Amino acid sequence: MVVPVSYYLALSVALFALGVIGVLVRRNILVILMCIEMMLNAVNLAFIGFADHFKAVDGQVFVFFVMTVAAAEVAVGLALIVAIFRTRATVYVDDLNILKW
Amino acid sequence: MIRFPIVGGMEILFFILAGVALVSGVLVVFQRHPLRSALWLIVNFFAVAGLYLLAHAEFIAAIQIIVYAGAIMVLFLFVIMLLNLRLPEAVGKFPHIGQKILGIALAGFTALILIYGFSLAKLPPAKEAAPGLGNTEAIAKSLFTDYLLPFEVTSVLLLVAIVGAVVLAKTRLK
Questions:
Q1: Per residue in B12-45, is it b (16+ CB within 10 Å) or e — as a string?
Q2: Whole domain around residue A66: which residue ranges?
Q3: CA A80 – CA B167 distance, rounded (Å)
Q4: Is the Cβ pair B126, A69 closer than 8 Å?
Q5: B53 touches chain A (CB under 8 A)
Q6: Mean pLDDT to the nearest integer, A17-28
Q7: Complex confidence, ipTM
Q8: Across the interface, do A1 and B10 touch by the CB < 8 Å criterion?
Q9: How many domains are contained in chain A?
Q10: What is the pTM of this model?
Q11: Is residue A101 part of a domain?
């Protein structure tokens, strides 16, 4: 008895959409970064679903790489947030509008 | 006599874990305080790790708990507490109602496009499990033969991330 791959894909799409909502709606840069993590997780879930469907290990290897990139991204991203907070004393993206057209 | 559709134990487990993942995901997005968002995100990661276990990806499930729920979320909680954001989002920092509606609509549109794309795919039926190699063993074999170069490049990436984080944290930005 296996769970069909379509279930995994449906859940993956739902989690990804939730992450998109978070990135677009929230104004706190920390929460935005967390929602990006959630989107990466949703993509990982799709990879794992396909890996289970095709009984191929390559999908799991890709998830491994995605996790590594996510860890690096979080380390650099949080360092950036701390640096921004030191100079601008804010974590709200509305206040960080120097690059805004 | 009514015959219920046969639902295996695996599918019941899937639905429970998927429900936990979705509810905690919604709470991540709509909690006011970032600390609570982070704690719900940990719940979400554990539920997804359970789903990985269901999909016979034991090694990835363990890595998910160690790297995501362990390392990354500790980093998040550390930074949230370091910045000492006592107040929930200050007045005037909320997005306008129009922005909210537009954001949710765009996310729904993204989901529709993804569902449409997936529905176009013609997947062959699921294969039978190959006997022999255990899960971790199979990943290791693939990682150190076919994916050796990406694996080594990954270590360089992590080094770059370490150096970048240290430089960003140490230097004073003007």
A1: eebeebbebbbebbbbbbbbebbbebbbbbbbbb
A2: 5-95
A3: 10
A4: no
A5: no
A6: 91
A7: 0.92
A8: yes
A9: 1
A10: 0.88
A11: no
Q: What is the pLDDT of residues B48-104, one digit of tens each?
A: 999 999 988 889 999 999 999 889 999 999 999 888 766 655 555 566 788 888 989
CATH of the domain at A16: 1.10.287.3510
B151: its two tokens: 């694996």
Residue of B nearest to A92 (CA): B93
Q: What φ, ψ does residue A92 adopt, rounded to 5°?
A: -100, 130
pLDDT tens digit sequence for A47-94: 999 998 888 888 999 999 999 999 999 999 999 998 888 888 888 888
d(CA A64, CA B139): 9
Residue in the structure block whose two tokens are 């795919």: B121
Contact (CB, 8 A) for B31 and B37: yes
Contact residues, B window 100-119, toward A, CB-based 8 Å cutoff: 100, 102-104, 106-108, 110-111, 114-115, 118
Closest CA to B125 of A53, A1, A48: A53
Identity of the residue in A14, A37, A45 whose CB atom sits nearest the CB atom of B72: A37
Q: Specify if A41 maps to a domain.
A: yes
